[in-house]
Every structure is written in structure tokens, then in C-alpha cells.
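Appendix C reproduces, verbatim, an entry submitted by the partner laboratory led by Prof. M.T., so that reviewers can inspect both the input and the predicted structure.
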Amino acid sequence: MRSVAMFLCLSSIVLYSLIASADDALVQVGHNKLDPAEITVTVGTTVVFHNLDEMPGGHTIVASDGSFESPGLAKDQKWSHTFTEPGVYAYEIKEHPSAKGKIVVE
């Protein structure tokens, strides 16, 4: 019985650490829109881009400095990028260049 209690305790600790380290941020992508357009995250954060709208060929997320580019995202598709270096990353929707965003990584 003691080994079962120990196992459950250790399992809970491992599960908690996995949940606590899940450091994601969400950006919703729409027709000519990013929500939120600007976010601040810490190094190691994964930003998930979720396309909510129909677009022939999908919506493509591109960094102004060329550091990342998604494939064309169909409606309800998601794509993610993990930021491993501090800095300011400007980006836009390739098909709607006036839809600009900024990710500040601290």
C-alpha cells in the first residue's frame, strides 16, 4: 500500500510539473485581423496561431525578419512557433499585409 501511495504522489508531482511548464500563448487569426495584435511572453513560450476564417489557400503568418513562416492555415487550423531568444518579433498575415502584430519576448 505504501508503494502505491508513493507512486501516486510522484505521479502527481510529475503531472503538475508538465502542466506548469506548458507555457503557450494564443493568437487568433481572422480576415485582416490578429487578436491580440501585440503580446509579451517569456523566452521558451510557444505561440499558437489559430485561424478562424476561410481564405482560399489559407492565412500565412510571416515574421518581418524572416525568422518564422507558417504554412497556409485553413479554417480552424493551428500552427505554433516557440520563441527561444529575447527580442521583438514583428509579423503579419501574408495575404493581408495591413494585419500586423508584434511579439515581445523577454
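The first helix runs from residue 2 to 21. Additional entries are available on request from the coordinating office.
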